[in-house]
């Protein structure tokens, strides 16, 4: 019996998590599991004043895998940084030491028309963003705001230890070996010392992977090349903040942010979450797209439990459901069958 922890969080998080559970239930025979649900983010702030309570942390550390929904919303935006709902996800990444965030971008042929780019620019796109997740300006100190009104100053610190760079570089090169054997490492070494170190250390680690091709690209250029010639990218290795930005950009190539899953891996722990946010504008309406969350379950089967077979069944279930024309509002196409979050989840679960 596998032990999972569900952290639905805020906004559309609870709605999409319910659909992930339908998928888990549909495959229960092949993958027996028990799960607990805990509070995180704004939901936890409302219940106990903290976005990442100790109880949630302890259960996350004890679970074999964590499924995470989304956190954040206008209700908690006025809170100081360390008490914002977003500290739910940032806190758990740090506590579980989830340093490697994998964000695959693959196209669904029937959704091609939804891409903001012309067909010729997205043809053949299949890439994965490997984002460092526990370092960089997200966690660097010192940070804060000092001074009185009229004279305030805000500051953050971009900081990377070479060990942090090494381990994520190994992740990227190993992954590239299972793909098209190309890594493009993103930095801003023309301006930032921390990024100069990033580039140097990635090159050093590359010496152990002569069969993998390595290129380096400045982040501003990368944001353009992802639009101009996305199909050329295979593994895109990024520091934390640039990966946050580029993965949103890359995901919309496929048509909707709502389709993209992610895995966050540490040495001993793993968490799976869609890359989109809590979407407060549509929360509670039952129209969110559960596909990113459901494909995150597929990543869990494969990466935490070595069950590529189950991952494949989930991916095929999603592909069939889309091929048969079922669409949530964000991916509606002419002639499509418009369904709500729950119907979409049921359609996918019934095809497993
Ligand atoms: C993501 C999100 C988070 C991040 C937020 C919610 C803190 O945008 O997972 O990409 O910035 O990492
Ligand atoms: Mg993001």
Question: Could you explain how this protein is built, in words?
Answer:
With 352 residues, this protein is of the alpha/beta class. Helix 10 packs antiparallel against helix 11. Strand 8, helix 7 and strand 9 form a beta-alpha-beta unit. Helix content is 38%, strand content 18%. The mean pLDDT is 97. The chain folds into two domains: 195 residues, Isopropylmalate Dehydrogenase, CATH 3.40.718; 112 residues, Rossmann fold. The protein binds 3-isopropylmalic acid and magnesium ion.
Q: What structural class results from the helix and strand content? A: alpha/beta
Taking pLDDT < 50 over at least 5 consecutive residues as the criterion, the unreliable ranges are none
The termini sit apart by 20 Å
Order of helices and strands: EHEHHEHEHEEEHEHEHEHEEHHEEH
State the CATH class of the largest domain: Alpha Beta
Overall 3D shape:
globular
User: How many whole angstroms does the radius of gyration measure?
Assistant: 20 Å
> Could you say which small molecules are bound to this protein?
3-isopropylmalic acid, magnesium ion
Helix content: 25-40%
Q: Taking strands numbered 1, 2, ... along the chain, how are they ordered across the largest sheet?
A: 2-1-3-12-11-4-5-10-8-9
Total separate domains:
2
CATH topology of the largest domain: Isopropylmalate Dehydrogenase
At CATH level 2, the architecture of the largest domain is 3-Layer(aba) Sandwich
Number of strands: 14
CATH superfamily of the largest domain: Isopropylmalate Dehydrogenase
Mean pLDDT: 97
Please indicate the percent range of residues in DSSP E strands (runs of 2 or more): 15-25%
């Amino acid at each position: 019996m596998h032990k999972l922890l569900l952290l639905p969080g805020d906004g559309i998080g609870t709605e999409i998590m319910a659909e992930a559970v339908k998928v888990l239930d549909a495959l229960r025979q092949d993958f027996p599991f028990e799960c607990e649900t805990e509070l995180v983010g704004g939901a936890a702030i409302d219940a106990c004043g903290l976005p990442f309570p100790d109880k949630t942390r302890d259960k996350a550390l004890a679970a074999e895998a964590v499924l995470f929904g989304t956190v954040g919303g206008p209700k908690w935006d006025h809170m100081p940084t360390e008490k914002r709902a977003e500290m739910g996800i940032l806190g758990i990444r740090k506590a579980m030491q989830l340093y490697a965030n994998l964000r695959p971008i693959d196209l669904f042929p029937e959704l091609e028309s939804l891409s903001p780019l012309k067909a010729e620019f997205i043809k053949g796109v299949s890439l994965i963003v490997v984002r460092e997740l526990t370092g960089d300006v997200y966690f660097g100190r010192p940070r804060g705001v000092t001074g009185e009104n009229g004279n305030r100053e805000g500051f953050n610190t971009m900081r990377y230890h070479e060990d942090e760079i090494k381990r994520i570089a190994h992740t990227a090169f190993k992954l590239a070996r299972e793909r098209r054997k190309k890594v493009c490492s993103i930095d801003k070494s023309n301006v930032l010392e921390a990024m100069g170190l990033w580039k140097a250390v990635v090159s050093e680690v590359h010496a152990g992977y002569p069969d993998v091709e390595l290129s380096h690209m400045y982040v501003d250029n990368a944001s353009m090349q992802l639009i101009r010639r996305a199909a050329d990218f295979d593994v895109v290795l990024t520091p934390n903040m640039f990966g946050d930005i580029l993965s949103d950009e890359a995901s919309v190539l496929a048509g909707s942010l709502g389709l993209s899953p992610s895995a966050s891996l540490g040495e001993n722990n793993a968490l799976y979450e869609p890359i989109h946010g809590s979407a407060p504008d549509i929360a509670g309406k039952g129209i969110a797209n559960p596909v990113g969350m459901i494909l995150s379950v597929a990543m869990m089967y494969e990466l935490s439990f070595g069950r590529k077979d189950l991952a494949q069944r989930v991916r095929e279930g999603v592909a069939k459901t889309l091929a048969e024309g079922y669409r949530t509002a964000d991916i509606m196409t002419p002639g499509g069958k418009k369904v709500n979050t729950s119907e979409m989840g049921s359609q996918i679960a019934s095809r497993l």
